[in-house]
Amino acid sequence: MDAADPRARDPLTPSLHVVLAAAVAAEVAAAVVPTMHLWGLNASRFLPPLIRFAPLLLAVAALVPWVGRAARPAVDGLDQGWRLPVALVAVTVALLALLPDRLGFVGDYLLRMGVLSEPGGFAATFPQALPLDFVRHDGLPRAAAHVFGVAPGTIERVLGVLEGAALALLAVHFARVIAAPSRLAVAAVALFGGGFTLFTGYGKPTIEVCLFTAAAGVFGTQLIRENRGAIGFGLATAAALAVHRAGWSLLPGVALGWLLWFRLHGRAGGWKSWRVAIGIGVPVAVFLALLPRLLHLFFGFDVATNFASAEVERQGGMLRAAFSGLRLLDVANVIALLCPLALAVPVLLPQVKPLRRPELVFLAGLVLSFVPSLLFVYVTQGPFRDWDAFAGAGAAISLSAAWLIAETLRQEPRARSLIAAIVLATLVPTLQLLVLHHDGEAGMARTRAFLTEPPRRTEAQRLATLDFIGLRSMRLHRWADAAAAYHDVAVVAPHPRALEFWGVNAAIAGNDHEAESAFAALAARDSTNLMGWVGLWMCGTFLGDSEEVRIARAKVGSFPPGGPEARSVEEKARRLPELSRLLEAASRGEKRPAP
């Protein structure tokens, strides 16, 4: 074929088409296949049929060439001037504000919200928290709540939406910095994904790691291309270091960025700039100030919890656990959830020319910085629930995919007919994940499917999932469901907390015999746990078992009034009015109140 023939072009358009078709096909498959092998893609499977299939059909239709060409005027018009940042911020604010997370499944969502709603306790609950975490997720929400007279959780939601808007502006700025042929397509890839859905009020600093990683990637790219953005690059790095230990994964990529900058601009005297001094000096100062604490947390907390935990040892150690089939499947699901077009990186990277672009080397280094955490950080509740711990990696991968797509659009103009497909391939799964977390019942169905459908999960992951079902059922006053979940936990791991929650929920649900069994197991396992004896006395009273009442009352009387055990029981009764009513009825020798 002659070189002048227009068909003799680089195969970037077909490759991009394959990436988009594969991403949409995987979403469609995950929407119908009744297993949890593709949990990173199957949020839509648990949604009502219209919400499940209508957006996917739009994404499929956008892959048709004439549909893509027909959409070009609309997407090109949105790409102009101020329209894109305004539209993208408006869409971001609307989605995050109108679809708040009502499920609370991800990571420490319920725990963080519970601590935020109670006075004090943040430092005791999160002793491993870094300074910026204290400020952002405890001090600031409480102070603002006091000033404006609203709940701290409401302030947390507002701050999350504002951070999401900042992420949208960063995505648009990235598209401008790399002179993307379609700012809309590039900004959509950089913005949308699983990390976007965390900005709905999740009170954990992993959302800031996502934001600061994106900022470091954007300003680092600008520094390398334009010799500008040094202060933004440095401040984003410093903030990531100060907010969460996951932010320290950035360091190799950041160091590579500065080396590339020095090679391109620093030798000509750029290193003398006061902006560069701030960009380097601030993160170095934060690094030196926090390094002793990070080393203490790493050896005193992370090694036993996140690297060489008992679960990891049961799987044969760190290497075997990291490269087991189930672990690699989960890593692939995490990446797919966080960056719907992550496949663009391995497919387009070998074809983009020239390959050794400094900004591409920097973005690749940023992605590689997170590979050790993706493989070797064994999050305590499993990747299915703790995927937020890898949000920074998702931001880095999204920027790399966005850069490669921009170069594809630049080198192959025919690929611009796929702009609408690019936007929908990222927006649709993000929207469906938002809806899933907003619709608590759909989210709970997916959670239960994780327990019952293949592949079989590890014991630790199953227990963490059951614990969530129990906690959320308690919040919804579904006491029987909560009792069933904690019964299943207690059968495998009869810890005092599981036994206590099983007994309390069974009692409130009206199942006194079941509650009696749970409290008896609790008292037998830990005779110093006052709640076990109080529960036995209460259940014995309602069941008319005078001998059990006598023994339990004697044990209760052996604890000092006003002591820590008594205060603990009083606090539990205060938090659960239903339990308080049962205890009051038992103390008066009355019949149990109706559930």
Topology (SSEs and partners):
Blueprint (H helix, E strand, L loop, with lengths): L11 H21 L16 H13 L3 H14 L4 H16 L10 H9 L4 H4 L5 H18 L3 H26 L5 H9 L14 H21 L3 H14 L7 H14 L9 H34 L2 H5 L3 H5 L2 H14 L5 H5 L9 H12 L1 H6 L6 H4 L4 H21 L7 H20 L1 H13 L6 H17 L3 H14 L3 H13 L3 H14 L4 H14 L2 H12 L6 H12 L1 H11 L8
Walk me through the structure.
The structure is a single chain. This protein is about 70% helix and about 0% strand. It has helices at about 10-30, 50-60, 65-80, 85-100, 110-115, 120-125, 130-150, 150-175, 185-190, 205-225, 230-245, 250-265, 275-305, 310-315, 320, 325-340, 345-350, 360-370, 370-375, 385, 390-410, 420-440, 440-450, 460-475, 480-490, 495-510, 510-525, 530-545, 545-555, 565-575, 575-585. The longest helix has about 35 residues, at about 275-305. Residues about 1-10 have low confidence and may be disordered.
Strand content: under 5%
- First CA to last CA: what distance? 81 Å
Q: Stretches where pLDDT falls below 50 for ≥5 residues?
A: 1-8
Helix content percent band = over 70%
Tally of DSSP helical segments: 31
Biggest sheet, open or closed, and with what strands and sense?
Answer: none
- Per DSSP E runs of 2 or more residues, the count of β-strands stands at 0
Mean pLDDT: 93
Structural class: mainly alpha
Shape: globular
Radius of gyration: 27 Å
